Amino acid sequence: MELMRTKYGVDPSLRTVYDTLKRAELVWITGRSIHPKADLETQETFKKNFRDKVIESLPAGIAIESVDIWFQDEARVGQRGTVTRTWAAKGSRPRLTRQQQFEYAYIFGAVCPTRDEAVGLVLPIANTDAMLVHLEHISAKIPEGRHGV
To answer: What is the DSSP string of 88-108?
Structure first.
């Protein structure tokens, strides 16, 4: 609003500013974080050369046309207790109990956008065995005669 006042000599209400931004199809969002050492040029090169890298990694006799590319990720979800606020006498710092145990679940997911297929699992632990179960579920979605990467 300060910019509108100084540059254009207009003093709009906050509601007018929000309505104008909405009509311009702008939204108030949290930006994606980026690692300070991220190399965007290297990332773009990887994206451009991805198909060639996949082809190079295929065993002899497997054509790229018979390959489905799957994208996979896993995440931990859960809740950890935190110290909360409490009413206390001014100047005091009361000790509060904090919940010490943790309850987590691990979500494994994979998608093949070309074939519009997806697999998702919620497991109590993330380890090699859990990943093998996840890969078995992905394998079950790959048709006979095709290969998954």
So the answer is: --TT-----------EEEEEE
Cβ atoms of 105 and 120 closer than 8 Å: no
Assigned token pair, 111 = 């998608």
Place of tokens 């990467």: 149
Whole-model pTM: value is: 0.60
> Which tens digit of pLDDT belongs to each residue from 83-93?
677 777 888 87
DSSP category for residue 144? T
Q: Is the dihedral of CA 86, 89, 95, 97 positive or negative?
A: negative
Beta strands per DSSP E along the chain: 67-68, 71-79, 103-112, 117-123, 147-148
Q: Alpha-carbon distance 139 to 132, whole Å?
A: 10
Interval 118-131: pLDDT, tens = 999 999 999 999 99
